[in-house]
Structures are given as C-alpha cells and as structure tokens.
Amino acid sequence: MGPRIGPMGEEPQMPDKDTKAMMSTEDTPGGKASPNPQDLRRSVFYNIKFFVLCHSLLQLAQLMISGYLKSSISTVEKRFGLSSQTSGLLAAFNEVGNTALIVFVSYFGSRVHRPRLIGYGAVLVALAGLLMSLPHFISEPYHYDRASPVDKPQDFEASLCQTKTLVPAPTPSNSSCSSYMESQHLAVVGIMFTAQTLLGVGSVPIQPFGISYIDDFAHNSNSPLYLGILFAVTMMGPGMAYGLGGLMLRLYVDIDRMPEGGISLNSKDPRWVGAWWLGFLISAGAVALAAVPYFFFPREMPKEKHELRFRRKVLAVSDSLVSKDEESPSEKQDGLVQIAPDLTVIQFIKVFPRVLLRTLRHPIFLLVVLAQVCTSSMVAGMATFLPKFLERQFSVTASYANLLIGGLTIPSAITGIVVGGIVVKRLHLGPMRCGALCLLGALFCLFLSLPLFFMGCPTHQIVGVTHQPRNLTGPELVPACRERCSCPLDDFNPVCDPSTHVEYLTPCQAGCTRRVSQETLDKSQVFYTNCSCVVGGGPVPAGSCDSACSHLVLPFMFLVSLGAALASLTHTPSFMLILRGVKKEDKTLAVGIQFMLLRVLAWMPSPVIHGSAIDTTCVYWAQSCGRRAVCRYYDHDLLRNRFIGLQFFFKTGSLACFALILAILRQQDKEERTQVAVSIPGLQQQQPLVSGPEKKPEEYTA
Q: Domain range for residue 568?
C-alpha cells in the first residue's frame, strides 16, 4: 500500500478522467497540459516501467559517486597531506547531511512533487561531485620531489649525494611555508567537506521518494518485481565505484598539465598520485544525465492495470530482495505521516523522541539494530580503508587494490544478500529459524577472520626509521658512508637495496651520486649508482622495497570476500526479525528508526574510528609547514593486528547480539507453547515475537 495522500484512514485516490483532463501545467511533462487521458497514457513519462529504468540508473550513478571517494582515499591523503583520521571523517561526512534531513522525508511523504524533488536532489549530488574535483584545479601542480627547486626538473640532483660545500645547509620544510600555502590547504579541505555534506543532502530524497512513487503507481503484483530490479541494479553501484577508481588511479594526477619532459614515476612508486579527481567528474556527469528525465515525470500517473506475464518466472529473485511479508517501502518511509498525518513540522519534531523511545523498548528490535550496527561498522571501516590496507600490507598499487575489491568483495556481498533472501523465501523461515540463520552467518564470518591476523609480513628495514632512533639528531647518527653528503631533511624519494632488502628515504641517504634512467617500450625505470652505503655501490632501483608477502593478497581477498558473503547472508533474515519483532502499528516507524540509527551509530563514526586506529600504527610522518601530514611508513604487524582486530571486535558484537536474540526467541516460543498447550492439541507453529493479540501462523511464512 502506498503512502496516504488524504487524511488518515483514506486510501490514496487516483484522479478521475475529469481531474486528469484538468491537471495543472506543473504536473505534466515539460510543463504542457494535455486534456486527453489517452495522450497521457501514451507518453513515455506516464509509464511506470520507464520510471523504474530511470530510477535504477540514477541510484546506480548516485551510489557510484558516493562510493568513489573510498576507492581513492589513500590517494587523496597523499595529495593533500591528510591523516587517516581526517580522511575517515571526510568519507563519513556525507552521512551528516543525510541524517540531518532524512527524518523529514517521512513527514513530507507524498505532499510534494516527488519526481521533481528527486531531480533537484540528483542535480545537487552532481554539483557535489564537481565540487569534490575542484581542489585539483585550484591547487598547484603536484611536486613529488619537494626538495627540487621549482625551476629544475622534478626528481633531479637535489635527491643525490652532494658535497656539503657545494650546497646550502639543509633547512626544515616549514621555512618555505607561507600563510598563503596554509590558507590554501585549509580551503581545499573545507571544499571537500562541504562537497561531502552536499552529497549527503542531495541523496536524501532519491531513494525513499523513488520507492514510494513506484509502489504507488505500479500494479500491486508487479511492485515487488520492480523494486527487486531496482535494488539489484543499485547494488552494482559500489562495485562500479571501485572499478572506476581502479581505472582512474592508473593515470597520473596532473594528466591535464604534465610537467615539461614528463615524469619518471610508475604506479608502484610510493610517491605516485593517480587522477583521483577524474572519477568525480565522470560520475557527476552520469548523475546529471540521469537526473534530466525527472523534470518531465508527472506528480501522479495512472496506476498500472496489467500484471506482467513473465512476473512469476523472476519473482523468486525479486522477492529475495523485497519480501511480500514486508510492508511496502512507501509505508516505511511514511511511518510518522500515517501515525499523525495532520501534524505540523514543529509537532512532528516534538512527537518523534517519544515514538523513538517506545520503539526502542522492544528487546528484539533493539538487539537486531545493535547487531546491524556492529555489522555496518565493520562494513564501513572495511569499505573505506581496505584499499589502503592492501597497498601497505602487500605492496600492491591503488589501482589493483580497487579492482580486487570491486571484482571480488562487492559481488560476494551482493550474492550473500540475494542468497539470504532466497533461503528465507523458499524455506518459509519463521522468526526462530531467521535468528538461527543470522547466528550461523555471523559465527562463520567470525571464524574466517581468524586467519587474517597471520597473513602478512613485518615492516622491512628502513634506514633512519625502523632500526635507528628517530627522536635524536646530530652527527653521531650519520653513517660514515655518507658523512660528506648534504641530504635535505624533508625529501622523500625512496630507493631499495635489493640485495639486503633495506630501504633508504632518499638516494642521498644511500650515498648515491648518479642517476640513470632506462627506457623501455612501455615504461621508464630509474636507477641510482655510485652508492657509498650500498654493498658494491649499486645500482639500486627507485621506489620502495616490495613486500615479501605479496603472494598472499589473493588468499587474503578470498577470505575477506567469503566473510562478506556470510555477513551479507544475515541482511534479509535480520530485517524480517525487525518486521516481526514489533507491533503492527510500529512497523513502519521501526524501519525508519533502524536506518537512522545505522547512520548515526555505524556509518558516521566507524570510518573515523578505523582511521584513528590506523594512525596509531604510523612510524614515520611527513611534515608540512610544521604540522603532521601524511604517514609515509606504518608498522605492518601493528597495522594488521589493529585493523583486523577492529573488524573482529565488531563481528564478535554482532554474534553476541544474534545469540541473545535466539535465546529470547526460544524463551518466548516456550512461553507461547505453554499457553496454547491447554486449548490446542499439538504444538503450534512459531508464535509472534512480542506479546499481543494472537496472530495467524500464515503471517510468519514468507
């Protein structure tokens, strides 16, 4: 049943023929009134199937732009000198604008021109995407060798060992800072946070209004199929975001303003920064194109009259995403409107806390939401920082890490959601078995995370970082092999001694005096020779030393993807527990409260928590204008233990909640069986999750 348009208790009324003939200009495509109902029906904008197609594409593009930042988070950190805590806050900031306004969607419901409001929201999302790319255009070109003078080619003699009498004494990096550079950095960060806020605000009307619009004007039998198609297409958005990130990060960040003479970096160099901004432009363009049709859809259209002939063949899959037992999504979004349709906005705000507290008193509802909060916290942290973790732990490029996630983990999660829905539907699982399925999924997901603690290697030796004191300065710390060298203090141009697997921050620290570039058909490789600190004098290749555990990246991703599938398996049965765990009059509002709590308790804080934990494992910070900037090196063992440990903590919390839910369900089932044993012979089917009027067993079959 769709949202109530008139007073409470009235069914939504479709305009009759006379009314449709007198529709106002704003309710017709392009703003032109058409007095002939037959003409209206023939218009493509009065076809609910065309609306489903447009909305599927829009939600796909919107999720792609929302998830793209996560695919390029480590690149943005390097480009603008951000810590993981700051980047995690940035990734979560779109939830701030979304959460602040999502409650009011329930209030406005169908009182507004829903397609047009969706179009306005999509335009705002596209503008937010353009704003996210703006820092690239207002910033100076990226100098990956900041020790080089501006008028010299990058990565030139400044990184080499030069006699102290030939160069000025090294100076700290903040001597070259200015108030302009600091203000520019603050402006760039402020622009990105503003863009993320606008992205969240623009996303508010897209999904709820689109779902309620489809449910209102689709045939009652076709609505689950349309919503199943919508969700199936939408779920591909995050995977496409990681795929787009994998493609864009292969390109150099300044591809539109390459330095004269080109660059001598490849994508495996730790100084490499990909074209992160290009993905925002592409996805913003996709959202803008998908927004155009919404300004031509009417406020109301004739309700679909015919059931699709092939509906039964594909309904099983769509029902796995949108179960018939669930209330229609439009009712979920319009919960408060149905409770109090005549409330003003002020009265709506006043009554909301009381209804919220009443809903939270349901033990099953509260425990399911807590379990979902733990699962969502795990997913949010993994989605934001898994690419960076793979880069650091296994020495893979940002592009390859994104392709692994988009090609393995995201499809596995989608498969888990669909399989969970099919199992609930086909096996007609009641509340008890739904709880057992959730418990098993969480348990096996937890077991699969145990081997991840041991799949990695410690940080290799880095001169001046991992096996020398970092808090002392003076001539006594300078090895005799490079006493004559004057090395810049803020330079970062790592080289690796392949014979000993020891890394130096710069060729100067390795005592190298010459640079050689070898050109091949597809790439250029840089070597440094005459290195006094290297046995045999070199040559040593530019770039960091590869991890000794690079071969473990695929087994690691296999376990992560399998765990994601098992965690996603609990999605549909846990959602059914919420619908069956509260009283009928509270169902619609319970779903809205559930999504609000997930945003506030999981999707907003989790990236910040994971980013803060990652920052605690840093062993060498870059300095910019006297402040701590991006982390250059991490303690790999500590990083792995804390990142996987956080995931393990949230998985344990989810398992504990599902165990309590199953215990409560068993107790309630035992009490219900005792009550009916006197009057009804045999054992009944599973009973309601909450006390109240006795319900028919059919209510609990999918």
A: 362-457+548-676
